[in-house]
Design a protein that fits this description.
three-stranded parallel β-sheet; alpha/beta; homodimer; globular
Chain lengths: 340, 340
């Protein structure tokens, strides 16, 4: 079984993101938002059948751990109230996708974060997504200000209410920023990767893993700059007397494989232990073209892993086993959704 | 000849950085700064002989392209006046090092930047450093706010006065941030690498290379996240209809080798054309320990390059030839300083 742990609903029916625009406009004008648009099951079916499901089949993957569009989270827009309504609408739509295609999609929640608003306010949405929707993880945005980095680092107790819930429910968080509203940081060309790198460093230098020994985080996009600079991080951890980097982070931090060329994947698999790598493509996502050097989509990451000099057992860990371990509720959810 | 293109004077006599502290305290108190401290030639000799020169000799390198301590630039502290006085003091000290050790050090200027102050005010210091001190390049901080990213991106015409000077003098700029005052970004564990990645992306998506076809930038720390995500950047350039990434950036952008483990160096040399890689270590710098996996310093980057499967001619480009090409005034300066 091939599990892609990083997919976003980038192909949602147009009226969904349309409503978001209206909601933010209404907020700016000090008015209540318009009623939420009607989205039919057929519209959802079509958006998936011609989108992520089609690509799953073309590439030979089986299941996508699926969450709302990351750039669309827009935690820097509106306020806590608009974020709550938007997260609720987005997660409900993911739940409908997972209900319509239970063999192919399992949900991960977007949180109703807002810059400088305590993440405590995310707890009800986590409760709902886990208990009512059967979601198996969350996306945690370390920078709800959208490129201005105005909230405390992930090691701060500010974030602990979310961490306590993650441990309680046995769900991991993917550290994933949203769109950048800072012109110095292109969303997919700089802010995403920099969010990964900063998030890793914040956790590495924190007490989070001492305070929550069983907590698990996925750093997406191949870990940002981290595996390429693994020697630098080993050295920084050593200079800071944190101990061996592998001891410090590898029980709790995992990296996905959203790296869009073979040499990058080779580095990832060489540097990071195979137990800490989870297959992912983020299709249909940031990079949609076909690589003229290979004739295949840049984000068809399965092809790169197929070419790595790893044993079948190790590849099975990357493709399936590690996801089942890191997402503690995944195996039970697969069983439940498969039975439908 | 082995030229290390990335060294900072991290071992300067104590009273130098001591004065900086006093200067900033005086500025906060609305008072004039105290007079600059006396630093003798012997003190400078000692700081270098027991510091960077000692390490050059131990590692078998010949010449360091040398600039003031990057984290010490502190462009977020004080104002334009304090930055001018501090840049002037720092560059003068580099000039004294280069005068005392003309065979081993050639200078690169720190600029008197300040957040939200036009970089036009850097021109007199560039003039002085090139014309009076014989410096061969500059360090350009893309984020003088120290982790808050409040200035325009590097593609903005805001930066063009500096670019025009670079072209006029045939000097490249290393894109190098200073210390972070944003608690989400550890200076050497996140801000440096993220500055590299953001800076690259800003230039890639800009018209700078159309407007200044001969301009040259060095992205330090192995290019931040960029070479590891070279496929992503190729795809982003393609999706944005910018053309082939190699055509877009490789006439103007170069990467140094400050990557502190062999697998990272292997990736860099595999992905980036050898003509675009410049040897560098940033010793004595961010990572000072000995790697228990190799028994050698993490930042002894020459050892990694010695192990790469490249021809002697290609290694000579990385160690010497590319630096002479990218730093247009370097060869003449080497000749001049060697004659002393």
């Amino acid at each position: 079984m091939i599990i892609d742990c990083h997919g976003h609903y980038t192909t949602s029916p147009r009226q969904h993101e349309g409503w978001r625009g209206e909601q933010i406009e209404a907020h700016k004008a000090g008015k209540p938002p318009p009623p939420r648009p009607r989205i039919t099951d057929d519209e959802i079916r079509e958006s998936i059948a011609n989108g992520q499901l089609k690509v799953q089949r073309e590439r030979g993957t089986d299941l996508t751990i699926f969450s709302p569009r990351a750039a669309g989270m827009g935690h820097h827009l509106g306020d806590a109230t608009t974020s709550e309504a938007w997260a609720s609408a987005c997660n409900e739509l993911i739940h409908r996708v997972c209900s319509l295609f239970p063999q192919n999609f399992i949900g991960v929640a977007m949180l109703p974060q807002s810059a400088r608003v305590s993440p405590k306010n995310c707890i009800p949405e986590i409760d709902r997504c886990v208990n009512e929707y059967g979601f198996v993880g969350i996306n945690l945005n370390p920078d709800p200000s959208g490129g201005h980095w105005q909230d405390p680092p992930l090691g701060d107790r500010y974030w602990y209410p979310v961490y306590a819930k993650m441990v309680e429910y046995d769900i991991p968080a993917m550290i994933h920023v949203s769109a950048s509203c800072n012109p110095t940081h292109h969303t997919t060309g700089a802010h995403y990767l920099n969010g990964d790198t900063a998030g890793f460093n914040q956790l590495m230098t924190s007490s989070v893993f001492k305070d929550f020994p069983s907590i698990r985080f996925i750093i997406p996009h191949g870990g940002g700059a981290v595996p390429y600079h693994w020697g630098r991080y080993r050295g920084l951890a050593q200079d800071a007397k944190l101990g061996l980097l592998s001891d410090v982070v590898l029980k709790n931090i995992f990296f996905d494989t959203c790296v869009y060329h073979l040499p990058g994947q080779e580095l990832l698999a060489k540097v990071i232990p195979v137990d800490n790598i989870l297959f992912a493509s983020e299709m249909i996502g940031a990079v949609r073209g076909i690589d003229p050097e290979t004739g295949h989509h840049y984000d068809d990451t399965k092809r790169y892993i197929d070419q790595l000099p790893l044993s079948a057992a190790d590849k099975a860990k990357i493709f399936e086993g590690n996801a089942r371990r890191v997402y503690g509720r995944l195996s039970a959810t697969i069983e439940k959704q498969s039975a439908r």
